[in-house]
Structure formats: structure tokens, C-alpha cells
Amino acid sequence: xxxxxxxxxxxxxxxxxxxxxxxxxxxxxxxxxxxxxxxxxxxxxxxxxxxxxxxxxxxxxxxxxxxxxxxxxxxxxxxxxxxxxxxxxxxxxxxxxxxxxxxxxxxxxxxxxxxxxxxxxxxxxxxxxxxxxxxxxxxxxxxxxxxxxxxxxxxxxxxxxxxxxxxxxxxxxxxxxxxxxxxxxxxxxxxxxxxxxxxxxxxxxxxxxxxxxxxxxxxxxxxxxxxxxxxxxxxxxxxxxxxxxxxxxxxxxxxxxxxxxxxxxxxxxxxxxxxxxxxxxxxxxxxxxxxxxxxx
Length: 296
Known about the structure:
This protein has helices at 10-21, 29-36, 47-55, 60-74, 79-122, 125-131, 137-140, 149-166, 177-183, 195-208, 211-243, 248-253, 265-295; strands at residues 189-190, 193-194.
């Protein structure tokens, strides 16, 4: 039977008072002073649960601060009231966790949407729309692979070697395989510009003995390669953000159930709200019963 429903009879009250008189209490002046300052303190939170809080990115000190705030406001007078206040604190903490998880999910979804849009804007015209459907690296080069961080790293290595080699003059015959490794038979067509064809124009001018034309074509080729490098760096950055980076909001979003359970969130929230209301009602009823018993 609930303690709240137990009626405090005059006989029971007298027995309680008689038992209280048997306690001598503190006798020294220091003991009396200390006793007069004693108040109910929050029960220590289980260490295992506090460790789990840290795993969830929560600060146990903030929970302790919540308990202290409720204790100061409600001022529990006995162990039963103390337990009610503890229950209120735990229900409120779970409510805050739910709100944090919901906001984290919304922020993560928005961030994913923005990254996906940026990836689409990063698409480099007809060539990009074509090569994303290709899979055979031996025939189409790394550029023909599906977009990934690994693909970007390979392309950046290849383009870096091409750029390094062409800064001082035409590439060696061995270095020409870099075009094949990067672009396969497509030979590096980027936004309608064929890198290999651009390079061959430069190499032809260099062999013809026209240094001014060769230098102009070399600079144009270098500029195209640098643009391609910048594009792959941006693509890698976006892919890293989408596939590997973990923000605090994304971690908070993991506190929610799976997608097929999200419809239960409303009921969970309502349940926590009812828990808080019930604890408050119990505390009010308990104090009313105690006052009624003490005055009877």
C-alpha cells in the first residue's frame, strides 16, 4: 500500500513522538550547531550510470547541479521526499536528453542535405555525369571510379606528379602513363578540356623550337591541372565531411531509437512528463498528509 495513502492517526502520531524523545541528539555546543545546519542532501548517483553519462557525451556535474537546484527549491524533509525529488531529477534529465537527441538529429539531417547539395554543385558537367557510371579502372582510370575519398587521393597523387613533372618541361615517355592511370582512354577530359591533348599541344610547341608559344601552352596546361587538383581537393573535403567526420550533433542524434521506432518518441516524451507530474503530486500529497497529522 502506498505511503501517501496511509492515514496518520493520533495514536500513530503519539507513538512517533514518543520514539523521537528517546533520541538524545547531540549534546555538545558544536554538535548542536552542526545538527541545526543539517539538510537532506542528494543521494550519490551510481558510478556506473555516471560512467554511461560520459560515454553519451553528458556531464555528470550538470546532473548533480540539477539535483541541487531541485533540492534547494523543494527542500525534501525526509527520505521519502528525498526519493521523490531524485525521481524528478532523473525524469527531467531524460527529458533533456530526448530534446538534445531530437535537435541533434535535425542538425545532422540538415548538414547532410547541405553536403549532398554541395556535392551535386561540384559535379563537373557532362564528363562527371558520364564517368560516375563507370567502374573499370583499367579502362577508364581512377577518374572513372565512383566518387570516394580513396579515388580523390589517387587522383591528387597522379595530378601532383604530372604538375611537378611539367613545371620544368615536357614529361618523359614513362610519365605519360600517368594520364592513362588517371583518366584511362578518356585521357583527362575535364569540363570539355582534354588534359592530354592540351599537354600534347605544349610538347609539340616545345619540340618545334618556339619557346614563347611553348611557355604559353605550358602555363595554360598547368592552370588546367591546378583547377583539376582544386576540384578533387574540394570533392575529397566534401566526401570526408559526409562519410567520416562526426560532429557533436551527429553523436547526439545517435541517442534516438532507429527510424522504425521514432514514432514512439512522442509517447516517450509524454511518459516522462507524466512521471514528473506524478512525483509532484506525490510530494504535495505527502506533505499535506504530514501537516494534517501533525495538527491533529
